[in-house]
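Progress against Task 2.4 (sequence-to-structure conversion) is shown through the following example record, which the project officer requested during the mid-term review.
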Amino acid sequence: MYDMNELLPVVAMLTKRYTGIESSSVSYEKANQLMGAVIYCIQEMESGGGASLASRPPNAMQAYKAGAELVHRKTKELLCFYECHKKTFCAYGNVYLADFWEKGLPAFFQHYDAQFEPQNALLTLDYPVLSDLAQYQGIDLVDLYVRSIVAEQQFLATFGETYVREVLYAYCADYAELPENLAAIVFANVMGHLLTGKKLSDKLCKADLEKISGLEANHGLQEKISEMAAAFLMHHFAEEASIRQYMMMALPDICTRIGNAAAYGNLEKVFVF
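Structure tokens generated for the chain above:
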């Protein structure tokens, strides 16, 4: 990162652009916002532009302009990505997912300030995705969030809407207002069938649950889940590495839930359909 003496002229330039006049008089809060915009764009250049020490722009102004251009490009690309997947989207009745896709994301594209406040993602992102969003801001945050949801959509589409809704309803009759990840719920249920060798259309019986409990007792359950999950994803998404990688993020929580349910005799709360 460049030092403050290098950043201040860039902030002054952006301030003049913001005020539309020669004066650089803005509130303290606005000045902080504009400084944040400059820093965000420079970080975009450094992290997203593939800049090495050797190719680093010689001054902060050039670094800012390169980063700002990258922010605008990412925003346009995300809009195209959204338009491409908009027609095939299905919220499965979940209000958090539907509100984001149908209301929140269009509002983001309408109001996102890529020039003066690119670090502000604007959205609350109430639907929980599997990706770790903690280190992201602005367009990077929204981009990862949207691509995570699309990966889920492609995963869930494999089973068909009827099956997904049946699993979700069996998991929670009020799943429409359930702030949980839908793909993880379905994937956990699928794991029960993989562990017992049963078809998805065949509901698990008491003997099946006892078989899974036996794996937990022998301390081989987590390893078995990981192996079968990886094989299942490779079989159905051999050409979609991003979907495989994304859904594998659900495994730690799924293994924990299954292990706890097996220990307390509540496997029917995980393998619901």
